[in-house]
Protein: Aldose 1-epimerase
Amino acid sequence: MAPLASGKQFEIGSGDQHAVIVEVGGGIREYTHRNRPVLDPYPPDAMADGAHGAPLIPWPNRIGHGQYRFGDTDYQLALTEPEKNNAIHGLLLWRPWEVADHRADEVTVGAHIHPMQGYPFHLEVTVRYALSADGLTVTTTATNTGDTTAPYGCGQHPYLSPGTGHIDDAHLQLDAATRIVTDPERQLPTGTEPVDGTPYDFRRPRPVGDLAIDYPFTDLARDDQGRARVRLQGTDGATAELWVDHTYPIIELFTGDTLVPDRRRRGLGVEPMTCPPDAFRTGDRLRHLEPGDTATTTWGARLSG
Structure:
């Protein structure tokens, strides 16, 4: 029997919650509560389309031309989005991850980035997925195990589920004041604009409709815990919610319009990001990890209603 396209399946559960983390890419393939999807799943024998559930390390989103300068050196990455002449979503999407710890309600997977063309640095990365009464909590930790400073950004690519059907009839809320505007050809930043008075103002819940979205949002409203939230309420009255801690200043929303027809708009991509697209070139909120330094980021999801 051939191995599954997503590799080994690592299941965790807590009460009525169930999640599956996969070997290929180290992402979360499904997360349900009371058998209702919180995160939009994909089949175990399929490749993760649209980076479904995957960690995006050591950069989220895109690097134009795959080129950047760090310190006094110019680097060229492989163009993993060749049709747009970009390097996209980091270096770990298709790498096998290993289990570091696996218990009934949590699993930690890890991968090592060895020096390679375009990124000659060492990073030790772990992602811990844990279920509790508060839902799913995902903690990503990256440590520079090399002897030179490394550029670093982090993101992840879960899709909130409307429960059944498409996201068009779901109500979306994201209290973000600013949209990062990107060019339509290559989706690299060209500036910012306030969401006020635009189709992208979801500070109060309203239907997604047929609006196509693939933009980062920032200036996030936060609660007294420093968390910002995205809520997607389905027609069943239940709300799939994703939160990010203070280490994530940006959330990308993606309505999935570029996926294959039977997968389009089945879930809403909600991507926590520590830096905006093209940060390796612009330096905008890019982390410089000194030798021995560790960066930790946390997001989570849950079902309410």
In short: The chain has one helix and 27 strands. The radius of gyration is 18 Å.
